[in-house]
């Protein structure tokens, strides 16, 4: 049986909280640290600030014995063998990652160290951050043999983060010493040994005890690059298929057939080849920009990433043009909108292409009735309700008397609408689907004027 490790996780945002809950689920003792007292209080009382499957179950299961919440970083550092830094690294004006939170936390940890610790960067950070953290800690007078810095990037998707953590395709750990490598391998042993998957209460997923995730031990710099390069590559795949979808539209081919054809090549793979209205969220846009900035700083030409970004912007505009072509003018028109989150399954609206499109429609005078299963409260903070913008409680209310219905996020429930009801609810049966949730032939047969992305109308 693997030995429990005492772990502190600094930052209880989506990465920190999911990591903390999953480490506890793997048998470790976890202290979750956040400097926001009200958040700590809420977590202590059983509240959960983010919408994430399985997170409530795991936190409830472990709250009393394996996870504690505090704002006291000093004591958490002293009581832990490994301290994971999972604070935000927002995008700065230059496109680079703003590392001031990481810097502040590293200094505070340094002032608290009283024995050997492994300090692990979990936030998405540019290459060399590890080196900076090490310097900050040394500058605070901590002797070299009292700490190591490791890099352990995460590859969690919002909405499926717990399953992605416990059933990871791979675990990447960058270290510069054997001692740190050993502790990190102990932390992940319940997963890499397959032990976790034998537990009756294990969260279900694709990996099992015979197929545990590989533990990839790398240099710290390689681990940092793996994170940025993975996100940039996935964003590139999306931009690639989006351009292919535009070619499909020009020649009358179906992008889904093309994506299946290319994705069946095991060297390419079928995932992240869904054409749509462009990628969004708190990761891809920020990480592509940050990685491009890293390359620029190093004098390496990575204009490919600039193209990835501009294709992504263009894709939103093309969708907007498609809506315009279907409706001619917007002033005074009523549009139903399904989906405000940057993708289905989350309440996150950061960099949401759906919101960009809605904002543009409002600018041009459209009246909108929007429905999202989870993101409405957050959307209201950005676009307050008004005579032009109504937030409604179900998809049919959004469609009621509308000149067209736009599908902008890929929530599963949007793919299961009662089409007959939808048809008589809309004023004109026009559906413009930015997520390709319906079969065009079926929609046409049912009397809709159905437009989607990269598929013949
Ligand atoms: C992404 C990565 O998938 C995770 O591996 C990574 O850990 C995370 O960023 C991060 O760095 O924290 P996430 O932003 O939650 O996860 O969302 P994704 O599911 O990757 O989707 C990103 C965007 O791409 C969404 O707007 C989605 O709608 C879009 N997308 C995705 C497509 O347009 N087509 C696809 O085929 C896939």
- Derived from helix and strand composition plus strand pairing, the structural class reads alpha/beta
Cα radius of gyration in angstroms: 24 Å
Helix content: 40-55%
Bound molecules: uridine-5'-diphosphate-glucuronic acid
What is the first-to-last residue Cα distance? Answer: 58 Å
CATH topology of the domain at 6-218: Rossmann fold
The stretches of 5 or more residues where confidence is low (pLDDT under 50) are none
Biggest sheet features: 6 strands, parallel
User: Can you tell me the overall shape?
Assistant: elongated
Query: What CATH architecture label of the domain at 6-218 applies?
Result: 3-Layer(aba) Sandwich
How much strand?
5-15%
What do you see in this structure?
The chain is an alpha/beta fold. Among the domains are: 213 residues, NAD(P)-binding Rossmann-like Domain (Rossmann fold), CATH 3.40.50.720; 81 residues, N-(1-d-carboxylethyl)-l-norvaline Dehydrogenase, domain 2, CATH 1.10.1040. Helix content is 43%, strand content 13%. Helix 1 crosses helix 3, helix 9 packs across helix 11 and helix 11 packs antiparallel against helix 12. The chain is elongated. The model has no long low-confidence stretch (mean pLDDT 95). It binds uridine-5'-diphosphate-glucuronic acid (UGA). The site of uridine-5'-diphosphate-glucuronic acid (UGA) has 20 residues, from helix 9. GO terms for molecular function: NAD binding; UDP-glucose 6-dehydrogenase activity. It catalyses: UDP-alpha-D-glucose + 2 NAD(+) + H2O = UDP-alpha-D-glucuronate + 2 NADH + 3 H(+). It comes from Silvibacterium bohemicum. Belongs to the UDP-glucose/GDP-mannose dehydrogenase family.
């Amino acid at each position: 049986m693997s030995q429990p490790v005492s772990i502190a996780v600094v930052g209880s945002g989506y990465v920190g909280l999911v990591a903390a809950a999953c480490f506890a689920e793997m048998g470790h003792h976890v202290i979750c640290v956040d400097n926001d007292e009200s958040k700590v209080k809420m977590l202590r009382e059983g509240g959960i600030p983010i919408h994430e499957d399985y997170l409530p179950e795991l936190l409830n299961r472990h709250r009393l014995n394996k996870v504690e919440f505090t704002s006291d970083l000093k004591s958490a550092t002293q009581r832990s063998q490994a301290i994971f830094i999972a604070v935000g690294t927002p995008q700065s004006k230059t496109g680079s990652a703003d590392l001031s939170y990481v810097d502040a936390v590293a200094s505070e940890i340094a002032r608290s160290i009283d024995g050997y610790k492994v300090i692990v960067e979990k936030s998405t950070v540019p290459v060399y951050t590890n080196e900076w953290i090490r310097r900050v800690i040394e500058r605070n007078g901590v002797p070299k043999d009292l700490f190591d810095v490791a890099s352990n990037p995460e590859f969690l998707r919002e909405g499926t983060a717990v399953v992605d953590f416990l059933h990871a395709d791979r675990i990447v750990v960058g270290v510069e010493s054997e001692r740190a490598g050993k502790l990190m391998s102990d932390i992940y042993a319940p997963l890499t040994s397959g032990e976790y998957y034998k537990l009756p209460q294990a969260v279900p997923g694709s990996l099992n005890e015979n197929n545990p995730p590989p533990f990839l031990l790398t240099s710290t710099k390689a681990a940092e690059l793996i994170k940025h390069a993975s996100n940039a590559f996935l964003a590139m795949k999306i931009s690639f298929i989006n351009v292919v979808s535009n070619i499909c539209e020009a020649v009358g081919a179906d992008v889904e057939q093309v994506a299946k054809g290319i994705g069946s090549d095991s060297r390419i793979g079928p995932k992240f080849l869904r054409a749509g209205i462009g990628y969004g969220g708190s990761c891809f846009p920020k990480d592509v920009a940050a990685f491009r900035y890293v390359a620029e700083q190093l004098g390496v030409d990575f204009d490919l990433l600039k193209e990835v970004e501009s294709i992504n912007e263009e894709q939103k505009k093309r969708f907007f043009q498609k809506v315009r072509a279907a409706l001619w003018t917007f002033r005074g028109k009523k549009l139903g909108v399904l989906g405000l989150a940057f993708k289905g399954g989350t309440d996150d609206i950061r960099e949401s292409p759906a919101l960009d499109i809605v904002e543009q429609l409002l600018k041009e005078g459209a009246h909108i009735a929007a429905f999202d299963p989870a993101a409405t409260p957050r959307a209201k903070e950005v676009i307050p309700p008004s005579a032009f913008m109504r937030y409604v409680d179900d998809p049919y209310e959004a469609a009621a008397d509308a000149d067209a219905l736009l599908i902008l996020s890929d929530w599963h429930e949007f793919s299961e609408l009662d089409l007959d009801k939808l048809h008589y609810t809309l004023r004109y049966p026009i559906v413009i689907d930015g997520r390709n949730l319906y079969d065009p032939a079926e929609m046409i047969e049912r009397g809709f004027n159905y437009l989607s992305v990269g598929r013949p109308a």
